[in-house]
Each structure stands twice: as structure tokens, then as C-alpha cells.
Amino acid sequence: MQIQKLMNTYGRPVTAHTGATESPLAYRAFLQPLRYKNKLYLYGVNTEIGYNSQGHYLYIGPPEPDLSTWEDDVWLLCDGVKYRIDRAEGVYLGNRRLYVWAIVRSMVEIGGGLPA
Question: Can you give the residue range of the structural domain that contains 97?
Fold first, then answer.
């Protein structure tokens, strides 16, 4: 399909990691910062060195992997930045999933490398 061809041509390299020992899944997807006019929905994290307002991003990726069905221990890696999935949904045409839409946020490593 045309959407998959565009992702393969113009998408950024992404790897999906799970808490399991499985190998990361590599593919290409679109990942762009969200720019809200009103910051009501954005929140941050207090860390040992101060407040970090986590960046939120729009993810548009291929129908597989279907991030909407993955567990909480999944994270994405793109350009050396880790992202946690806040919300993901498949986008369909009839019964066929065309792509996965998600809101992801950059992860903050705190105390001992634990992601927040």
C-alpha cells in the first residue's frame, strides 16, 4: 500500500523493545513533536536535578507492530532517544489496518537508570 511505501522511503528508523529478552524489532515510522496551543494535556516529571517537561510526539507507524496491543514494558528507540507509548490505536479502512497512530513521550532516566 502507498502509506507503507512512504514510511519505508521517508520514515525514521525505529526499534521497538520489550521487557522480554526478544530481539528488538526494527522498522521505519514517522515521529514528530506535538505542538499544543494549550499545554493543559502535557505534564512533566520531577527528577533529582529538577523538573523535566517530557516531550510528546505523534507516531505514525506501519500496521505491524500493532503498538495498541503491546504491554506497558514496551519502549521505542529513535535517534538515540527512548519513547514510552501513552496511547496507540490502529487506523482502518474497512477491516484492513492501514497504520498505527500513537502519542509517545520521551523517557527520562532517573536514579539508577530506571525509566520514568
Answer: 2-36+49-110
